[in-house]
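Dear colleagues,

As part of the handover before I leave the project, I'm documenting each prediction I ran so the next person doesn't have to rerun anything. This entry is a single chain, and its sequence is reproduced below.
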Amino acid sequence: MVYTAALPASTHLPLNQGIFKMPIKTSYWALLIAIIVMTVGCSNENGQATQPVAQTQTQTQTQTQPESQPADVTRKFDWYMEKVTPAGRTTLTRSADDRVSNESFVHWNNREYTLNSTLQLDENGLVVEQTITGISPFGAPIDENFSWKGGVASWKTVGEGGKITSSDAAFYLPTEWASVGALEAMVQAAAKNPNGEIALFPQGRARVEKMSSTEVETPEGPVAVSLWAIFGTGFTPNFAWFDDDMNLRVASSAGWIGMVPEGWSPGVLEKLDAIQLETSAKLVEAIAGDLAIPVSGDVVFANVAVADVEELQRLENHFVLVRNGKIQAVSAEPLDITGATVIDGSGKTLIPGMWDMHGHFSLSDGILNIAGGITSVRDIGGEHDSVMQMTAKIDSGQVIGPTTDRAGFMDRAGPFASGWAAESLEDALGRVDFFAENGYLQVKLYSSIEPGWVAPIAERAHGHNMRVSGHIPAYMSAEQAVRAGYDEIQHINMVFLNFLAGDREDTRKQLRFTLYGDEAGKLDLQSQEVQDFMALLKENNVVVDPTAAIFETMLIHLPGQPDPTFAPVIDHLPPSVARRLYNPEMDIVEVADAWALSNKAQSAMLKLLYDNGIQLVPGSDNIAAFTVHRELETYAEAGIPNAAVLRMATLDSANLVGAGEKTGSITVGKQADLVLVEGDPFEDISAVRRATLVMKGDTAYQPDALYQAVGVKPFLPSEGLGSAEAAAGN
């Protein structure tokens, strides 16, 4: 991706006209902006980021200078997962000449992220020079630089770059937000401007706004901190906490990972996370108030093709009546309903609302999910307090989002722990009880779980009528995990690693990716050991959650190319999000041919699983909705019939979580979770991308309006429902 332009400052992209008035997450992309900002985030799993400072008790002078020239100031920050588990360190130093250096090492989800950056600020706090180097969490090199000289802004990353000639300066927004110094500097510079706005290089604008203030107890004594919202750097606002001198103090991503000054208790995150979540909810609530359309009367979809996912057939020229959020009739004959709102479905297909079975859910994801036709999500490992608060707000209608079911997430305490970490088997069993008491559907285990713990954990979970799933623990094979009680395997690489690693390798580390890339293409899928494993999965009714899209990205994404998962939509995404999608997360240039073969083997494995009757469930583990769309396309490209793929994303997923009696198909009596799409997904599964109207029970949504609200350029005009009164038949 290369930009070459000559632009006056006024042509930097204008603020979005949506509810937030500017472009607003990404997995890993989302996590990485939510992580290091903090930027976010969480993801992702498919995780999947300033600076004039005042001297405080947490700052130390690194060298002695004359009183007329202030000394360099260094500040250190500690990272924590789940508010308790140490997760890394950031060191931030500002020199007397406004040069800012940033060193970060953050580890989470068995990933390690290193970053070193320097930026030179001018008298207005704008970046005139910046360099960023490091290693991404998946092992790719980070190499980014920027300069502003003589009215020319030039930059280069591993995957994109360009030049802009402009009459006015702007703030350079790096793709690597783990540069905490860059985040702080941008907020400081923007806060000095009218309305908190600032132009960005390469394009766009950001706005910062102080949302609330509070006081926290620290080793320094009480410290006043204020929550600042940062609009324009993702899909929805990012947040960070600053003191009265505009020094960055705390950053947190939905309780999952957070950063506090060295010496501060991570306990401050508990208080600040609650305030931050409530603030985020209020912003999202504004969208719900403006863009959710209550439908209390009758709605008739006329002359529409109905996707019958029960019988795997397309019913042409049908009529569907929705009344008070429920499907009342599905008819081949016209329905004459007095006062009904009639939607002409000619040339379109009505499909059941889809599921994301591998979400790492946040409030900001809800809008993208609904716009993309995802009306239900299985959260596969969010922080408990945050997930409970978010689902409550969605269920009450305060914010826009899918119906959410929860899977508890646990690991064993240690250097590679992710999520909630158990100190002992007894501790782990107690956590299973906790999940059961709080309405979780299943327990997800991670890579550091002691293999000997799996069977007793499974026994305890099954006693609560909960399922067990997860990564396959290190030094355990997938076959052993299934025999110990696994009901579901997360990620298709774990299926391959049954043969490539078995119980011999430490798959907590990058090996679970590199071994997969190097060797998957060599595995004989017709071998007896593979066939025996298929039979074992079928015999035990084991489900596979492939997240194939994120592995496709890992296996074939090369520098300078768009991430294959988002290539079809990248031109519609906010510029700051799109730029990151040109930078690979894996360093595969030297092994590209071998890894491309492994990608083909992945596709063949999907078809083999399907042919052997193994249930597949589609999930994102990355940017909401768009990743699910690509996941379904990978299944179809593997040779699975489109009708079966659509059923996986709807009825099969609903049945797996016990919701099949109320949703998942267009059946009389079920909730009206419906998506009107342009085209025929039975012929072209990509039609699921082209939603023109989404219904979730008694509420309708127009995708184009939702997309605009989060800085995404709409794909199609939406169906008109008129006013809420008209939709209600009044």
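Residues 472-616 form one domain. The first helix runs from residue 28 to 38.

All the best with the project,
I.
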